[in-house]
């Protein structure tokens, strides 16, 4: 196996069961399968393809990473589905004139934004690209996840050609914020040895009231919050929150 990009390695390792859970959440909570749906920060397109395969007629993927969008194109071709791809920054995409019936964003995408200013800017972009009474669905990790579960978390995995190490740390003086150190060791036949690929990912979250306030400020109403992919009510130990809101 030749040297691979981090995007390809991350895509290969991602838990497929999570995509099935997000797809199930969308099936239950999205009001319209016939309208235009945009998967914001949709990465390699795996969820978007599942949505297409389960009856959503018009799905597009928006992502910042050209490497991820290249993988999305490959996956769409393999699945034989039409999947329009858009490259851009979720904080500023005014050049995109299309309006959507539904916009979704899962897999912690909003937790990678640096502060509430960036979260609000993205919420406003979402609102401006929704049709009247359009629907917005997204998830975030909770403060319980950042403050209790993640600090000190470690996960290791390997096969014959690749090893993966994931370590997570809390960040002092930064509330509800963690840093993930992700390291791959990949066999590279060109050098007949292992090559290290490493990235640091920072995630930050806020309390439910902050997300609700920012959504209202961006122009949303009918805000609903649940846990466990929409199957449960929120509790103090919920690791992930799911928001559904309507453009005011």
UniProtKB/TrEMBL annotation:
Domain Methyltransferase stretches: 38-134
Keyword Methyltransferase: yes
GO molecular function: methyltransferase activity
Gene Ontology biological-process entries: methylation
Bilayer-crossing regions: none
Superkingdom classification of source: Bacteria
Keyword entries, A-Z: Methyltransferase, Transferase
Pfam family, one: Methyltransf_25
Coiled-coil region: none
Protein name (record): Methyltransferase
Species assigned in the record: Weissella jogaejeotgali
């Amino acid at each position: 196996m030749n040297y691979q990009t981090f995007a390809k390695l991350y895509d290969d390792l991602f838990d497929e069961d999570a995509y099935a859970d997000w797809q199930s959440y969308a099936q239950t909570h999205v009001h319209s399968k016939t309208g235009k749906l945009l998967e914001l920060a949709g990465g390699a397109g795996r969820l978007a393809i599942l949505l297409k395969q389960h009856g959503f007629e018009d799905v597009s993927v928006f992502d910042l990473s050209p490497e991820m969008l290249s993988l999305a194109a490959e996956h769409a071709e393999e699945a034989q589905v039409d999947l329009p791809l858009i490259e851009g920054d979720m904080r500023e995409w005014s050049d995109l004139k299309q309006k959507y019936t539904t916009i979704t964003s899962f897999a912690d995408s909003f937790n990678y934004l640096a502060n509430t200013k960036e979260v609000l800017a993205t919420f406003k972009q979402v609102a401006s690209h929704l049709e009247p009474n359009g629907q917005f669905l997204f998830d975030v990790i909770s403060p319980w996840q950042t403050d209790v579960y993640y600090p000190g978390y470690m996960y290791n995995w390997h096969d014959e050609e690749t090893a993966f190490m994931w370590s997570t740390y809390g960040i002092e003086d930064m509330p509800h914020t963690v840093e993930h150190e992700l390291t791959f060791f990949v066999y590279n036949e060109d050098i007949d040895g292992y090559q290290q690929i490493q990235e640091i990912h920072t995630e930050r979250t806020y309390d439910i009231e902050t997300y609700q306030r920012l959504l209202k400020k961006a122009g949303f109403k009918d805000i609903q919050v649940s846990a466990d992919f929409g199957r449960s009510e929120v509790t103090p130990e919920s690791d992930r929150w799911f928001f559904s809101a309507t453009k005011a």
